[in-house]
Amino acid sequence: MFNIKLSGQFFFSFEALLNFKILTIMNVVLNFMTKVRRSLKGRGIVSSVILIPKRYIQRYKFRSFDLWGLVETQEMDGAEEVKKHATKYEASNLIFFKKMFQNLDWPFQNSTYIDFGCGKGASLVYAADMGFKKVIGVEFATKLARIASENMNKYAKLKDKKVSFEVFNIDASQFEIPLDADCFYFFNPFDAVILDLVLRNIVKSLDIRQRKILIVYLHAVHVDVIRKYNFNQIRYISPKELDIYYFGGGYVFTNN
Ligand SMILES: C[S@@+](CC[C@H](N)C(=O)[O-])C[C@H]1O[C@@H](n2cnc3c(N)ncnc32)[C@H](O)[C@@H]1O
């Protein structure tokens, strides 16, 4: 083994470092191969060949933002009672996000967008980029909410324009819906219990101020909860056309 003595106390093992590097590279390669295998199985060769590079390109576009990685609920700060109902953090994918909104007859420039469970704010950045008048993030985990704010500040700085945004560090079920908010986004943030409470708050806000709204639900595992409220479904995209692991696919609902 080849060791270098550093400041008389620490020994650096090149062999250990080399092993670590090799393990990291192997891990990245294995991850990539798993993704390729799943994609080929789920979508077939042609769609995979188109989609896989697209996914990496979209990440490259947002490389200066702290958006990626998984954060398990046990690693999050925030109330245990809320965590019980929460899903882990994973950023929305821009390609699938855009697919949910494309060709919708919706006045983005006059619309206020809310992401319930905004995490690090990936969808806030995408929504601001799509031209929403205002974007709002609601996130119970304090560190994630702080990162979402930092990402939005960075976005405004990069674009060199004023971007209207707010991030609330609060349990989504306790968040009072602003009466001008009209586009509500859910990327499988929590279980049916919290989803139901949030929907009740949305309906309550409609009772106070009637307006046309959109509800966009991606990775829609609890879509039955939304169905109870008799909104009109205007879009369904299957997991096969999105990500095969977005169980339930994606839905868009409106109220008239
Ligand atoms: C799958 S991630 C979605 C991240 C983000 N919406 C996006 O599209 O990139 C789910 C997020 O919901 C948050 N979350 C879960 N339960 C919540 C609750 N009751 N109130 C607010 N945020 C919650 C989690 O902390 C996590 O960041």
| CATH superfamily annotation of the largest domain | Vaccinia Virus protein VP39
Return Rg in Å. Answer: 21 Å
Give the rounded overall mean pLDDT: 88
CATH class of the largest domain: Alpha Beta
DSSP summary, beta strand count: 9
| Helix/strand order, N-terminal first | EEHHHHEHEHEEHEHEE
Question: How does this model look, in words?
Answer:
The chain is of the alpha/beta class. It has 2 domains: 59 residues; 182 residues, Rossmann fold, CATH 3.40.50.150. The protein is 42% helix and 18% strand. It is built from 8 helices and 9 strands. Helix 1 crosses helix 2. The longest helix has 30 residues. The radius of gyration is 21 Å and the shape is globular. S-adenosylmethionine binds next to helix 5.
Features:
256 residues; two-stranded antiparallel ribbon; 2 domains; 8 helices; binds S-adenosylmethionine; alpha/beta; disordered N terminus; Rossmann fold
Summarize the structure.
The chain has 256 residues and is α/β, with parallel strands linked by helices. It has helices spanning 14-43, 45-61, 80-83, 94-101, 122-130, 142-159, 192-208, 223-227; strands spanning 3-6, 10-13, 112-116, 134-138, 165-168, 181-187, 214-218, 232-237, 250-254.
Compile the SSE list and pairings.
Elements lengths: L2 E4 L3 E4 H30 L1 H17 L18 H4 L10 H8 L10 E5 L5 H9 L3 E5 L3 H18 L5 E4 L12 E7 L4 H17 L5 E5 L4 H5 L4 E6 L12 E5 L2
Bound molecules: S-adenosylmethionine.
